[in-house]
Amino acid sequence: MPLQDFNNALIEPSLKILCIHSLAIHGTASLKVMMRLLGTKLLPVASLYLSGLTNLKGIIKTQVAFEPLLKSSFELARQREEKLIVYIGYLGSAQQTHFIRQCLDAFQDLIEAVIVDPVSGDHGRAYVPAEVIEAWPELLARADWALPNFTELGLFSGFDRFAQRSVEELLNAFEQRFPQLNYLATSLPHPSDIKVCLHQTNKREFFTHQLLSPHFGGTGDYFGANFVDALYLQKRSPQEAMQFAALQTLACIQRSIDAKSPDLLI
What digits encode the pLDDT tens for the residues 70-93? Predict the structure, then answer.
């Protein structure tokens, strides 16, 4: 039995991961990654269709009937007596954040936890519209867990020029802005390696691991799917889930490098 199927068999059948994320045809990221790793436990709700990842030239984006699709997904979960972990990733518009918040409030009796990956940028630059970045705090304020990378940590820290700030300053500012939020900040710079920061109940823990290049799109999604699997399906501690997700992602990157693949191999 594959590892993911075995893990899924260990938990109650009614627990599902409702994942709001984009779906790209070319490349390995977003819902493609989540569906591969979380299998039948996943309820995928597309926020946007793309012909390819945003780092590819010539892609097109297509909007979906997001609001009725999401509302119906929640209604069916209630009808089927399912409990939900809600995972929110790449959004297609700022308006989606408001409707998601409405659904989180309307169906809160079904929701065990809300996890947000505020997909907004990487490598020091934003790659979504400014209005989407401005709307994200509405969901960060509602979430139980957030999974920002280093650039996104800066974007939501409240500093105008976050590139000039230290890791410590950004972590402090992010925690002050969202004091209720547990988070995992990934891709934190380190003199020779790379770090992940786990913040929970006013305490920080760091996990340092090897830095590999080149960069592959979708590594954040791979990390997020493994974290959700470890924390909520395997019932590991947050510390164990952090290390599991980081090491699984590292192995996936190395596998992709060894195969000389242009895309992340999962």
Answer: 999 999 999 999 999 999 999 999
